[in-house]
Amino acid sequence: MSTAPRLAAAKRDWGHDETGCTVLHIDMDAFYASLEVARHPELKGKPVIIGTGARSVVSAASYEARRYGVNSAMASARARQLCPNGVFLPVDMRYYREQSHRIFTEVFERVTDRIEKVSVDEGYMDVSAALTQWHSPSAIGAWIRGEVARRFHVTCSVGVAGNKLVAKMASTNAKPDGMLVIPLARHAEFVQMMPLRGIPGIGPALEKRLNGWGINSVADLAATDETALARACGSATLAHGLWLAARGVDDRPVTPYTPEKSVGAERTFSEDTRSMRKVHDLLRWACDDVARTLRGKGFMARTLTVKLRFADLSYQTRACTLEKPFDTASAMLPEAMRLLRAMLGMTGTADGTRGTVGTSYDETLPKLVRLAGVSASGLTEADKTVVQPSLDDLLDEHAHEGAGGTKPARMSQAEQALDAVRRKFGSKAASLGL
């Protein structure tokens, strides 16, 4: 569900010269909610909200629900206040992914194999090679919209342009169930009529920072000298990217295969908590889940990130890159707890029953925590990743000669054995004790 700002004035005829407009961005309209209506036709016309439970957040909302002010990432409890007559349904990711796969393979791939899937509900297409058969990009966009609606009973919006940036902004402003073609000669004009948040990547923090420098729109951005923009952003690289974006320039190619970038796991507590024990146990579960996924997909990771969401729905993350690539929870959990303590400004060690890395289970966290989780990034293929033992590892191996290698190697073997038990007897048959 896109929350990017839309401009009513942008939804108009920009001209019919499609020369060079070979990039399409296709974005499903209220995808999760639309799929639920598709399989439950009796819900048509009703405010459908995906996300149940007092502690959950809204994953998607139908356009009928949005009229009440319901948006994604909003607390479900708040959504119930705004839309008491809404139909609240649980998230069914297996079904959404299955339908997404069908749409991409049964519809999009009939046009071209130059497809970059961004998420379950959006993707880019490079249709330059398909034009000999289809003649015009807009004809392809119209056919895709028709096929998705006819076969899956959901609608999608399409942006047609000369690059990914403008195509995505066009599909956003074509919503719902529309298509915008932006000719090459009008890319800059189209982009510069937008608010700052209309450019993908400009979030609330960057918008506020730019506002402080008197930059309140994309037109202002385009009129700002790149050197001054670098001072405003605090980064010359970011400033250059924004300077190009404000002119409708984007040289990123459509990449048919995007390697997996990260693996994560998180959960929301049944009640906000200040308990170190509860947060520790949740992070232990998350590390175990992420490590199992890494091993199952044949990946190792280098960077670990801990995420916390607080009672006021604000969130914070902190990351670190480990000395050695990892795919075990035993390597992740101690670092996750260090990140947690650093994030919350907790120093020293309290007395009491201690958990990981000197953490006391009796400690009280300084803020109420609503959700916690971890993710692993910097992924590499495990069979191509060299892990160099440290001096401590070699000393440990010598001290435990005959025990099966270094301590990390023994922990990896133990966790792989757990994987085998779970595959045979179910995911809850055994749990990791750290």
SSE blueprint:
Elements: E1 23-28, H1 31-39, E2 48-50, E3 60-61, H2 63-66, H3 76-82, E4 87-89, H4 93-106, E5 115-119, E6 122-126, H5 131-134, H6 137-152, E7 156-161, H7 164-174, E8 179-181, H8 187-192, H9 204-211, H10 218-222, H11 226-233, H12 236-245, E9 262-275, H13 276-297, E10 299-310, E11 315-326, H14 329-343, E12 364-377, E13 380-381, H15 391-399, H16 407-425
Parallel strand pairs: 2-4, 7-8
Antiparallel strand pairs: 1-6, 1-7, 2-3, 5-6, 9-12, 10-11, 10-12, 10-13
Helix pairs in contact: 11-12, 13-14
- Which regions have little confidence, pLDDT < 50, spanning 5+ residues? 349-355
Helix content: 25-40%
Give the class from helix and strand content and strand pairing.
alpha+beta
Supply Rg. 25 Å
CATH architecture of the largest domain: 2-Layer Sandwich
For this structure, what is the CATH class of the largest domain?
Alpha Beta
Q: Helix and strand string, N-terminal first?
A: EHEEHHEHEEHHEHEHHHHHEHEEHEEHH
* CATH topology type of the largest domain: Dna Ligase, domain 1
Could you give the distance between the termini? 38 Å
Outline the biggest β-sheet. 5 strands, mixed
How many extended strands? 13
CATH superfamily of the largest domain: DNA polymerase, Y-family, little finger domain
Overall, the morphology is: globular
Looking across the biggest beta sheet, what order are the strands in? Answer: 5-6-1-7-8
Percent strand equals 15-25%
Question: Mean pLDDT, as a whole number?
Answer: 86
| Number of spatially distinct domains | 4
Total DSSP helices:
16
Binding site for Mg(2+): 27, 121
Subcellular location: Cytoplasm
Active site: 122
EC number: 2.7.7.7
